[in-house]
Amino acid sequence: MPTYVCCAPSKSLSDGQKDQIASAIARRHSEATGAPSFFVQVVIEESETTRRYLGGGPSGAHIWIRGDIRAGRSEAVRGALMLAIMRDVSAIAAVPETSIWVYLCNLEATDMVEFGHVLPKPGEEQAWFEGLPTALQTYLKGLGAKQDTFRL
After folding, report:
1. What's the CA gap between 64 and 101, in Å, rounded?
2. How far apart are CA 79 and CA 7, in angstroms?
3. Structural domain boundaries, residue 54
4. Distance in angstroms (rounded) separating the CA atoms of residues 6 and 46
């Protein structure tokens, strides 16, 4: 489902901060969209060979986050989601909010395959989930979700 790629300057984040960022993004996405947090993938990229530039000059303090999400979310939902992610990452990484840039890219659900199945449209997650093989349902329920808080 949604995939968020966070590009940060090399060695700017501890493993603990990376874990907190991944949890915060998964939680914020789930809160904003209603999609289960186990659908949210977060990739944090740091590379000593990556060079970042703004206006042709080096930029070492920014964190860029690109989220590929299913189309169909309202502008208000997307705006609130981006701002919540920006605030969380700023607090976790101890960098100014102005140094966190978030981009959401909307993909049609029919343009994505995960776990061997074309993804459902927003709002159709329950039927999609119930149509999955039992073993896959069990696996997905175990990804970052507790049985008592699991929801679709």
Report:
1. 5
2. 20
3. 3-141
4. 9
Q: Is residue 91 within 8 Å of 25, Cβ to Cβ? A: no
Give me the CATH number covering residue 125: 3.30.429.10
Overall size of the chain counted in residues:
152
* Total domains, the chain: 1
Q: Tens-of-pLDDT digits for all 152 residues of the chain?
A: 799 999 999 899 999 999 999 999 999 999 998 887 877 999 999 988 888 888 898 887 789 999 999 898 999 999 999 999 999 999 999 999 999 999 999 999 889 888 898 988 888 888 888 999 999 988 888 875 544 444 44
CA distance 36 to 1: 10
| Phi and psi angles of residue 117, each rounded to the nearest 5 degrees, phi first | -140, 145
Residue 114 lies in a domain: yes
